[in-house]
């Protein structure tokens, strides 16, 4: 979808060599690197990207919410971060932790929330217990933040 909307310089990271090979086969990415989010620094210099997305990885047992400062590090001031997580019962504890970390970074002036959009039919459920109200789907949330510009240094 990003490519169809004109985004042509896409870089990707994944902890799995197999997933990187699959991404490489699409021909959509200019750079792909192996990196375990939350355990390693991202393979990019500070303030490098106009936009950073994490879709389908922020969840219980996957990427820890402690990765947020690292995502901010590689985003240019004024750049955007689009993050998602699930709202299914087994992910609610993680979602609360994530939202607390998102809010803390907003309160300290690191970024500004532009959107927190609930999506009812985020992905197909793999069990009836995970299904939102018996729909066969799991709900989720899309968060969009803008990194705050660096304040000018005060003279004197």
UniProtKB/TrEMBL annotation:
InterPro entries: Methyltransf_11 (IPR013216), SAM-dependent_MTases_sf (IPR029063). The gene is Mettl27. It comes from the Eukaryota. This is MET27 protein. Residues 4-82 form the Methyltransferase type domain. GO terms for molecular function: S-adenosylmethionine-dependent methyltransferase activity. It comes from Calyptomena viridis (Lesser green broadbill).
